[in-house]
Amino acid sequence: MVLCGGVGCLSLWWNLRLENRFDPSIRTCAVRYGLSPALVKALIWRESRFNPLARGKAGEIGLMQITEDAAQEWADSLRLKGYMHEHTLDPGTNIVAGTYYLAKVLRRYSSTDNPMAYALADYNAGRGNVLRWMNTTNLSGAKTNGAQFLAAITFPSTRQYVESILIRRSYYQDQFGSRP
Question: Which residue is catalytic, options 19, 47, 73, 86?
Answer without folding.
Answer: 47
